Amino acid sequence: MTSQRILDFFKTRQPEGPCLVVDLDVVAGNFKAFRHALPDSHIYYAVKANPAPEVLRLLAGLGSNFDCASVAEIEMALDAGATAARISFGNTIKKERDVARAHALGVNLFAVDSHEEVEKIARAAPGARVFCRVLTNGEGAEWPLSRKFGCVPQMAVDVLVYAHQLGLESFGVSFHVGSQMTKVDAWDAALADAKRVFVSLAKQGIELKMVNMGGGFPTKYLKDVPTAQAYGQAIFASLSRHFGNRIPMTIIEPGRGMVGNAGVIKSEVVLISKKSDNDEHRWVFLDIGKFGGLAETMDEAIRYPIRTERDADDMGLCVLAGPTCDSADVMYEKNMYPLPLSLTIGDEVLIEGTGAYTTTYSAVAFNGFEPLKSYCI
Description:
Shape: elongated
Number of strands: 18
Helix content: 25-40%
Oligomer: single chain
CATH architecture of the largest domain: Alpha-Beta Barrel
Order of helices and strands: HEHEHEHEHEHEEHEEHEHEHEEEEEEE
Number of domains: 2
Strand content: 15-25%
C-alpha cells in the first residue's frame, strides 16, 4: 500500500512524471525489522538496490554496513557517513585497479569465487580478508540469479586455501539464494554447504570466521510474502542445526527487502489502443517501461501492484507496455494485467513496490526519455 506521506507528496508537489518517491520512514522500519529478526547478524545494505544519498545517509545513521559492487558505490557509502570498516566489496568480478583503489580507501573485505580473483586481491590488497561465494540453485526465487557468480563448494575450499597461501585472510564463505525468495527455508541447503566448507578448511588448519548469507529477502508485490521475523526464525534454526553452538559471525545483505515497499512510481497513460477491430484486449502504454526503470518486468518476473483512481470500475485484461521505440519494451503480455475498462489517456497510475531496482536500471536517456527522477521524503 502507498503510504499517506507519498500520497500527500503527489497531491501537494504534483511532480512531473514518471517519478519515484521513497518514504524514508518505511526504510527505517524495514531496517529495524531486519535487526530484530536477526539480531546477531550484521546488516550490509545492498547499495545497488537504491543508492539514493538520502537512503544511504539514513541507513548509515542507523548503524547499517554496506555491500558495494563498485568503487563508485564504495565512495557513495563513505560520503553517506559509513567508515571503510563497514563496507564489503561484494562483487566477484573486479578490475585489479579497482581493488587497489578500494584498499587505498580502507576497504578490507572482498568477495571472490575463483583463483584468478584471489591473485588480483593478493597483488592489489595484500593481507585483506576474502570470502568465497558458493553456488546455490535459487529454487523459489522470483528473480533467480544465474551461474554467473559463485563456484561449487569443493572449488570454494581450494580457492580459500589458495588465498591463505598467498597471504590473504581466508575469512569465510558467502551465497545468495536468489532475489525475491519466497521460501523461508531456502537458506538451509546453502548453510549446509557452508558448514562443509568450514570443516574442510579446518582440517587444513584454516579457521573460517564468517558466513555471508546474502540477500533474497522479498518485498510485497501482488502476493503476500513472509515477514522478516519468519525468515529470521528459519535462518537461525538452520544455523543452529548446521553449526551447533559454534555459530560463526553472519552477514545479511538486504536490498529489495530494505527499500522495495518504500517506493512508488507515478506514471501516466500515454495511449490506449487495439491492434485490430476485433482485438479482444487493449494495449495500454505508460510513460515508463523496461528502459525507464521497470527492467525487472523482463520475462514478466516481477509483477508490480498498479493502482488508479478508477479501480472501483469494471476491470479488463490488457497488454501493458512502455513508451519507447523498442519492441522489447512490453511489460506484461503473456500474463496480461487487469486494469479498469474506464481507464483513459492522461490518467495517472501508481506503480507500487518500486523502491528497489528501478532508478538504478534507468541510468541512460534511451530514446531521449530522461532517467527516472527520484524523491526521498
